[in-house]
Amino acid sequence: MAELVRAEKDELARLDAISMGRPVNTFFDSHYAATHFEYFAEAAYGQGHTSLNTPGFLNMSLRQPYGVVAIVIPWNAPLVFFSKKVAPAIAAGNTVVLKSSEKAPLTAWKVSTWIEKCGFPPGVINVLSGHGQISGNALAEHMKVRCLSFTGSTRTGRAIQIASAKSNLKKVIFELGGKGPAIVFEDADVEQAVRETENSINWNSGQTW
Predict the structure, then answer these.
(1) CA–CA separation, 47 vs 164, rounded Å?
(2) pTM to 2 decimals?
């Protein structure tokens, strides 16, 4: 998968440009994603722990896969989030169902066409697209999904947390947020602060060049 992501970086950049306005000259995502696939292919095998702290006992723990892991990724860096969430989940022995953002589904779709070619068994990596109210909610409520990783808004994260609690109390992993404030101190170069803040807000959506 890492090799294909690197080899097809121009096509992946084009797809992100089409779907969410990302300038192709800022596309570093293929290198980032390939690094994730390579790292977790070697380093993420789960291991347990042993302890002799209790006199007369050998305490042992064993890490086991969750089973089915749901992954919901955002629009702003779909290939990055695909790799950083799918790679460790698979390496740890899980199967995954990934829902891409309806605002930027193309790179996730493209990578999904390589799953069989890369040798992953059928059903280990599953990719779907759709709106959160339908597809995302189905994953959050599903009784066979035992872990869900979500990056997106705090409002949606709260809805997923409630759905998890009402279903099988699945493990949830969140990265939540939105637009954050820029704090500019009195001794700052205001002109530079304006330029950097504007770039930080807009560079990823094709609004600057």
Answers:
(1) 27
(2) 0.85
**Per-residue DSSP letters for 131-146?**
-IIIIIHHHHH-TTEE
Q: Taking the domains of the chain in order of start, what are their residue ranges?
A: 2-44+65-178
CA dihedral 52, 58, 59, 61 (to 10 degrees): 110
Cβ pair 102, 108 in contact under 8 A? no
User: What are the residues whose beta carbons fall under 8 Å from the beta carbon of 156, sequence distance 6 or more?
Assistant: 132, 136, 150
**Cα 112 → chain centroid:** 14
Taking a C-beta distance cutoff of 8 angstroms, is the pair 61, 49 a contact?
yes
Helix (H, G, I), strand (E, B) or coil at 209: coil
Which letter does DSSP use for residue 121 in this model?
P
2-44+65-178 CATH choice from 3.40.50.40, 3.30.70.1120, 3.30.413.10, 3.40.605.10 = 3.40.605.10
Do 140 and 110 contact (CB within 8 A), yes or no? no
- pLDDT 10s digits, 183-198: 999 999 999 999 988 8
Q: Shortest CA distance to 182 belongs to which of 198, 168, 169, 167?
A: 198
